[in-house]
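Exercise 7. Given the encoded structure of a 178-residue chain, write a plausible sequence.
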């Protein structure tokens, strides 16, 4: 059977995993196991015992139908699927941490939120620098993404077209439109 692709050896596709049926408690162990490539070091980072981290790896292997990490000359190496998951699990964990850190109160001085504005190029030129300075003073740890709205009929680029810039303070300032 090709790992992770089919349940019956190749003719029946693997069912789509529904979020409600997933054990999301395995996200952080997955990240640490793939990052450390060591059950013992991952356990230390997670603050659990080595057998608990090993059990998490076993559950992940069953879920994905893949070894994820295999022994090679005394070390673990990632399988192809393990490498693919390693690229994805960090941003997923970061997003989950931001999601659960959200509060009803908003304090711009301490906020690390990301904001996205879609503006016409003229508005960026006229207001961009002043807006960037105000946000930098009020919310020094925030990230501002400015997307230039483009007239898709004039440029033929399709609906919702936008060019994007990201600013991270203390960079301050929005690059001028090209």
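Solution.
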């Amino acid at each position: 059977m090709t790992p992770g692709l089919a349940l019956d050896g190749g003719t029946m596709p693997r069912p789509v995993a529904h979020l409600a049926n997933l054990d999301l408690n395995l996200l952080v162990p997955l990240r640490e196991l793939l990052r450390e490539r060591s059950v013992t070091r991952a356990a230390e980072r997670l603050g659990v015992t080595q057998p608990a981290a090993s059990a998490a790896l076993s559950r992940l292997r069953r879920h994905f139908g893949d070894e994820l990490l295999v022994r090679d000359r005394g070390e673990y190496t990632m399988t192809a699927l393990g490498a693919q998951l390693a690229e994805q699990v960090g941003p997923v964990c970061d997003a989950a941490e931001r999601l659960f850190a959200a509060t009803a109160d908003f304090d711009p001085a301490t906020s690390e939120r990301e904001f996205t504005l879609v503006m016409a190029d003229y508005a960026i030129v006229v207001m961009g620098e002043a807006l960037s300075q105000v946000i930098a003073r009020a919310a020094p740890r925030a990230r501002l993404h400015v997307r230039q709205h483009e007239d898709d009929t004039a440029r033929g680029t399709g609906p919702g077209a936008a060019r994007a810039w990201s600013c991270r303070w203390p960079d301050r300032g929005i690059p001028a439109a090209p």
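Remark. Residues 1-8, 159-178 have pLDDT under 50 and may be disordered. Students should compare their own answers with the one above.
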